[in-house]
Amino acid sequence: MSQFFQIHPENPQLRLIRQAVEIIRSGGVIAYPTDSAYALGCLIGDKKAVDRIRRIRQVTDKHNFTLVCRDLSELAIYAQVNNSQYRLLKAHTPGPYTFILKGSREVPRRLMHPKRKTIGIRVPECPITQALLAELDAPIMSTTLLLPGDEYPLLDPYDIRQTLENQLDLVIDGGFCGMEPTTVISLLDDIPEVIRTGKGATASFF
User: Fold this and answer.
1) Average pLDDT of 35-43?
2) Number of helical (H) and strand (E) elements in the chain, helices listed first
3) CB-based contacts of 50: which residues, under 8 Å, 6+ apart?
4) Do the bridges between strand 170-173 and strand 118-122 make them parallel or antiparallel, or are there none, so unpaired?
5) Cα 120 off chain centre by
6) Is the CB of residue 138 less than 8 Å from the CB of residue 44?
7) Domain residue spans of the chain
8) Which residue among 41, 44, 98, 204 is least enclosed by CB atoms within 10 Å?
9) Per-residue pLDDT reduced to its tens digit, 117-173
């Protein structure tokens, strides 16, 4: 049965953040709020935890996860970023965007697109997520909490707890969360490409 932490959405309690990070470090899978929707997350490189998330979502090993990073300097460790890409990233982070970039050697191969060697990376504007990332001192491997057959992500932490309490190690209640996913932008070419329109506005990319 999963633990259930009620964490203040604006002023996260450090004691609970530290407990949540210990769960992640010990191989746990958590549900946590972001600036777009609730997400499932685990430690980068933890194959067992990633496989558990795949089973919850009922997705194959082809499913693309996202690396959630605390800032641009951490993002640049896991992605290859040139000057023009950096300017776009700086103008739109933190925020509800996922950027498709070439992965670096720091990203486990199985987490990148098998042919293009790309990875989705984002820097969310959410105090709880930022507190988790600061304490963890590493990215969180994440995917939207969208269950099989559902059109929208779960947005009520009590629903998440009731539905997944035997499959998760922790549910973080940060209040009701949105159900609109991030906007996905590919920065692989000279001109940004909108892969999915979501919460983040796209006009400023063009």
Assistant:
1) 95
2) 6, 10
3) 42, 65, 111, 141
4) unpaired
5) 9
6) yes
7) 12-155+181-200
8) 204
9) 889 999 999 999 999 999 999 999 999 999 999 988 998 999 999 999 999 999 999
